[in-house]
């Protein structure tokens, strides 16, 4: 079976039919790194033999635009850790991806960044890009890759760019998601009452996230099928 870890319930819905049947099991972290790790362990114990990190990520590379799809060669962290992904599986899935698909240069070592914290400001993104050269950043992939490596299982990541480098995330984002990966609408509404000036930036982030989710939806059918075929052939 293929185990897929997402941060948000909407990312799981972007999987289409794979979210409902077939040899796929899904874990949702609610954008909590420790939960991504525990969900990865749970999926392995349920019989999954390939782990995939799937979902929206923040853009760090200045050229990364909302909706760009990324299959990295590795995930790194701020401390210098690096967890490579299976080049064979990555190449197989990359061959099935639709446009816009800009980063699949496994030989050139394009990586993504895993973080245990939320990055809100463009200045922080610029600093992280200078430090790591990563295309995107998210809060699940590094934990998923660590679990897979500890169990000697293959892993890969498919991420779509949401907020690009220049987008400043509103502070409301930090309280917008529950552990089940669904929006906490009450908390968001209360936050807007307290910080109404954040509404325009929140709406911008929503549009950028929607572009990423649409890209994931276009990619899901062929990408997941190719991943399953590749792991069955190993």
Task: Describe the 3D structure.
The protein is 39% helix and 19% strand. By secondary structure, it is α/β, with parallel strands linked by helices. Strands 1, 2, 3, 4, 5, 6, 7, 8, 9 and 10 form a ten-stranded mixed sheet that branches. Strand 5 and strand 6 form a beta hairpin. It starts with a strand and ends with a helix. 47% of the residues are buried.
Structural key phrases:
234 residues; 10-stranded mixed beta sheet; 7 helices; 10 strands; globular
Summarize the structure.
The protein is an alpha/beta fold and 234 residues long. Helix content is 39%, strand content 19%. Helix 1 links the parallel strand 1 and strand 2.
